Amino acid sequence: MSCCAASASLSVPSSARRPDRRELLDASHDLGDGTVSTRLAVPDAHCAGCISTIEQALGAVPHVTDARVNLAGRFVTVKWPRDAVDPEAAFAALDHAGYRAGLMDEAENGPDPVLRRLLVALAVAGFAAGNVMLLSVSVWSGADAATRELFHWISAAIAVPAVIVAGRPFFAPALQALKAGRLNMDVPISLAVVLAVALSLHETVTGGAHAYFDASVTLLFFLLIGRTLDHVMRSRAGAALRTLDRTTPRGAVVVGADGGTSWTPLADVTPGMTVLVASGDRVPVDGAAASDAARVDLSVVTGESDPVALAIGETVVAGALVVDGPLTLSATRAGHASFLGEMRAMLEAAETARPALSRLADRAAAIYAPAVHLIAAVTFLGWWLAGGGLHHALTTAIAVLIITCPCALGLAAPIVQVVAAGRLLKDRILLRDGGALETLATVDRVVLDKTGTLTIPTLDPDALARLSGTALAVAATLARRSRHPVARAIEAAASDTDPALLDGIRERPGQGIEGKLDGQLWRLGRADWALSPAALVDLADTIRARPVLARDGARVADFDLVDRPRPGADGAVATLRRLGLCPTLLSGDGDAKVAETAGRLGLDTWTARATPATKIAEIRRLQQGGHRVLMIGDGLNDAPALAAADVSMAPSAASDVSRTAASIVFLSEDMGAIPAALSVARRARRLILQNFGLAVAYNAIAVPLAIAGYATPLFAAIAMSASSIVVVANALRLALPGRDVASPREDARS
Amino acid sequence: MTVLAILIPAALALGLVGLLAFLWALRSGQFEDLDGAAERILLPEDDRPKTDRPKERGRS
């Protein structure tokens, strides 16, 4: 266990399942020479010690050629030969080093060519802006005619190629928009830059006094800053559907009439077929159990990971995870009509129908672009008709276009989002979609999941406290070898225990783990396997269902998982209530447990036994009532609801699909992350609106001057820079410690 | 004014060097992990990079 690994809590990661080879290869990036690179998320890595621990642990895995931690992105890139990828070994190594790990999606986190192009354009524009400005300053300071002309020529030589290279991110979308007969923000930008360069070239050739080369490149520079930040903050919320497809079965092992088994693609599985599912696999189709005593994890429906025992004839849905198997079942529905197929359809519908983010910046742009064109056109006509001459009219109109160019507007939203994301990350909240921040600020209803979100299944601490030193050491050592939720909890709780020197440790699939110490046989697992028949006879049924620790067939301890509220859940719910967000509990668990949790946390409205379909229906109902909904959930069963809500949050221990569907992921255990995120989002929204106000104020002063013909290149340079700096400075205020959403003052206002 | 003939090319050349240096750094992945770079100087063993590292870094 490393010095800085996740603190030894009693919590259980809900996605205890490790990806298999197929999933891993699917998410990997092929390097072309027979090797692939795979990104594994390591959310707990945060220091130099973590880097070296993780890299050494993975470097020791056979066949791994390189492992490199990216601390900024909290992931590690593993390179290995395509034929020799071994997810089991890699995840075990990380596990042993004390780090939670998950697979990252290639599509979501692969190299980003657009960002690179923007950065190159930004660098070129920055270089040009600096140097042309240098030359321009000497011209403005009163260079004589010959020097001025020379400087104009040099400026032209820098600015023209720079505009061609750096302007591309604006020209291409502008052309597209014009071809489609629309106007977007890029049209006035492109027009201003191109016309400014053309006018300046004309001035240079004819020996005129005013060239706007500096304005055109500085314009591009500022706008590219905004564009680059906007791109960085763009939605990283990947396609949850893809993740779902990756983690769910594509085929089934069908038992033929002769008793032989064959792998059959899901599309060819028809009702009536007999299907065999091994321990650790997901059930591929809905069916009725044909074998006794298998235990399945139905969290795909209910969100509860406590395994349920199946009797013969009981129905089981596709997507259920077989914990203790194998399970034989008789298919009752075809693959695509199964529960998982329905869930897939729901997720697909939710993803495509997700309310489009009406971003403030887009709305501003929709008003801005036509207004700018109108003002410039009116200026041109006005001066022309007033007898100012064609040349003067044109110069003034172009000056208006330059002055009104939306530098401040382009920076107003992205800079706030970047600062806000940085601030959230300090609170261990990961913003995966910059636009979600704006929506979060306007949310007026909150829907919460119970298990894994409001509560965490934790090990009853008394069970461990009662264990003697040896038994504790044995339990911890055995637990380390298993992915069972209880074993994970034991391991986490006993992480600082020295391992016991057990011999011949081995895992019995579906039963448990055993090992020998001083000639005694220790077992951790199912009671009916670990205990001798004699010890089993007079055991209460409740204990019989629990995993036990046994020495030579005698019970030493039994373990149970109990639901405990996540730390900070009380406070978070209280804050949500005070803000008038009407938090609602939607859980797949039974009435009694849901009512108990709702009562304890003070939630008035709750629904038990909610299926993924009812969760979506509830969110749709709220949305149709004109509300903006924040959904917070973690399980696979929450994924469609997370995708359907206006904005969604998931804890970092959530299932892969839910994490992908969520726009915000909180890495901390503490539910305080939710009010914290709300508080930052609200302040960010205020700042964005303020920034728009500043941009409008700037235009209100600068535009009349430009129309009047006072917008010299010097004036344009000062006005543009000043407005951009003001907007950036205002955004940086978000990084200062501010009032909390939970503070009484804010409360009184809202 | 002849001094301009030297100073302006010199200024532009220096600026160009800066631009090319940035483009090189971007291409070779120097900005991939800024937090990690800050922490890595604390690791004693990372002084001697793995033999295959510079090649792989250049490619990414």
Written account of the structure:
The complex is a heterodimer of chains A (about 750) and B (about 60). Chain A folds into five domains: about 20-110, Alpha-Beta Plaits, CATH 3.30.70.100; about 115-230 and about 365-415 and about 680-735, no CATH class; about 250-350, Calcium-transporting ATPase, cytoplasmic transduction domain A (Distorted Sandwich); about 430-455 and about 565-665, Rossmann fold (3-Layer(aba) Sandwich); about 460-560, Calcium-transporting ATPase, cytoplasmic domain N, CATH 3.40.1110. Chain A contains 30 helices and 28 strands. The longest helix of chain A has about 35 residues, at about 675-705. In chain A, strand 24 (about 585), helix 24 (about 590-600) and strand 25 (about 605) form a beta-alpha-beta unit. Mean pLDDT of chain A is about 80; it is low at about 1-15 and about 740-750. Chain A has about 750 residues and is of the alpha+beta class. By secondary structure, chain B is mainly α. In chain B, about 65% of the residues lie in helices and about 0% in strands. Chain B has three helices and no strands. The longest helix of chain B has 26 residues, at about 1-25.
Q: Rough shape of chain B?
A: elongated
The total of beta strands of chain B comes to 0
How are helices and strands ordered from N to C of chain B? HHH
Give the CA-based shape of chain A: elongated
- The structure class of chain B reads mainly alpha
Strand fraction of chain A: 15-25%
Count of separate structural domains of chain A = 5
User: Largest sheet of chain A at a glance?
Assistant: 7 strands, mixed
* First-last Cα distance of chain A: 46 Å
Give me the Rg of chain A, rounded: 31 Å
Mean pLDDT score of chain B: 75
For the largest beta-sheet of chain B, the strand count, sense and barrel status come to: none
Number of helices of chain A: 30
Helix content of chain A: 40-55%
Residues in helices of chain B, as a percent range: 55-70%
Low-confidence stretches of chain A: 1-16, 741-750
- The helix/strand class of chain A is alpha+beta
Q: Could you give the order of strands across the largest sheet of chain A? A: 15-28-27-26-16-24-25
